Structures are given as C-alpha cells and as structure tokens.
Amino acid sequence: MNAREAVLRRVREALAGTERTPRADIPRDYATSRDVADPVALFCERVADYRAEIERIGPEDLPGRITTALGGAERVLTPSGLPQAWYPPAGSFELLSDGDELSAAELDRVDAVVTTAVVGIASTGTIVLDHGPGQGRRAVTLVPDVHVCVLRESQIVDDVPAALHRLDPARPLTFISGPSATSDIELKRVEGVHGPRTLRVLVLP
User: Fold this and answer.
1) b/e 95-120 (16+ beta carbons within 10 angstroms → b)
2) In which element (H, E) is residue 115 found?
3) How distant, in Å, are the alpha carbons of 73, 114, 118, 146, 173 from that of 102?
4) Helices and strands of the chain, counted as H and E runs
5) Where are the domains of the chain?
6) How far, in whole angstroms, is CA 193 from its chain's centroid?
7) Do 122 and 161 form a contact (C-beta atoms < 8 A)?
8) Where does residue 161 fall: left (phi above 0), alpha (psi -120 to 50 degrees), or beta otherwise?
C-alpha cells in the first residue's frame, strides 16, 4: 500500500457510518441577504478606495461631466447602444463608433471609451459589464487608457449574490474594481498594465 492509498483508506474509515446532509437542507440565507442602509453611498466609498474617480451627478449635467472626465483625450470611442443624450458634445476630440469594428492597432490609438454597465456592487466597489448595448465588446474597455462609465443608482445592488441574480451567465462578463493595477516583486504599484490606467464612474439618479 502506497501513501496515497493509506490516506484514502483512513478517510474512508473516518467517514464510515456518517450521514451526508442533503445540500438543500443547509440554510443559505446568508448568501442572499445583506443589510446595507445606503448601497449607493457605500458603492461610491468602495469605488474611491480602489483609486477610481466617482461622482454623483444629475442627468442635466451628464454631457458636460463626461467631457470633463475625458480630460485631454483626443480620440474617444462610444459603443453602439449608448444613449444619444449621453454623448459628449462635439469639441476638441474625435468621436469613434465601436460599430466600426476597429482593429487592435486602431484601438491602441483610442485615448478613452465611454460606456454604461449592467450592475454595480456596493460591498466591493465593482462595476460589471455584460457587453450589451452601450457597453461595447470587451476589447474596447481594456485597451484605451481612460474608461468613463455611467451607472444609474437603480443598477447598484448590495453585494455579489444580489448582482449575480441580475446577470446572465451565458453572456461574457467583465468585473471591474478600480483601474487596472499590478505590483512587482518590490510591491511597487503600476497602473494601466492590463487595462485602463484611469477609471471614472458617474452615477445618475
């Protein structure tokens, strides 16, 4: 008898005579309920903790605030399905459409992207994209250096289980918690390696 067989034999002996509790009998309310007094305020706090910029604004301020959030971007991508009222006013930048199916090289020359999201998670400060209308394909939110995301308060939920109830597992899902960041062996933080260096979130009523 080798070591593996000896370990398995002892496991079988330890489990002998025990009864397995059916999975359905285990109470799991803890996984679906969380008492959060103000999910939107908590979401804003957690997003800021991740070094992303976040601001609660009124609908009338949105185009101007998007323009401000874009900073000095010269080429800005807007995915198809983004509400027309959300488009930043024409100015010193060039607006590109995701419907143009830009190549990787062309995307690399895009400075910023404006999207919406499908849900925001208060407890983790995470925004989730399922790449439906107004969100674009995954590449357009990973390659440009600046990502401006617009979210409504009604899309913000308490925690991850509540968010999963709103998501379609058959769709491609991207979970974003702050700007892309990594650390080297000396723990020096570097941003923008695997995605946008800057994430700015605008929250509408």
Assistant:
1) ebebeeebeeeebeebbbbbbbbbbb
2) strand 112-116
3) 18, 15, 23, 17, 21
4) 5, 12
5) 36-204
6) 17
7) no
8) alpha
Find residue 77's DSSP bridge partners. Answer: 96, 113
Q: Amino acid letter at 180?
A: S
The DSSP secondary structure of 134-176, one letter per residue, reads: TT--GGGGTSSSEEEEEEEGGGEESSHHHHHHH--TTS--EEE
φ, ψ dihedrals at 48, nearest 5°: -65, -35
Which pLDDT does position 49 carry in this prediction? 93
pLDDT profile of the chain (205 residues), mean per 10? 89 78 60 76 95 94 91 89 81 76 86 95 95 92 93 94 92 91 74 81 96
CA distance 47 to 56: 12
The whole-angstrom separation of Cα 148 and Cα 67 is 10
Q: Find where tokens 């185009």 sit.
A: 63
Helix (H, G, I), strand (E, B) or coil at 61: helix
Distances (CA, A) of 24 to 14, 34, 42, 51: 24, 21, 32, 41
Topology classification of domain 36-204:
Rossmann fold (3.40.50)
Residues 6+ apart with CB under 8 A from 8: none
Amino acid 35 reads D
Cβ contact 118:174 at 8 Å: no
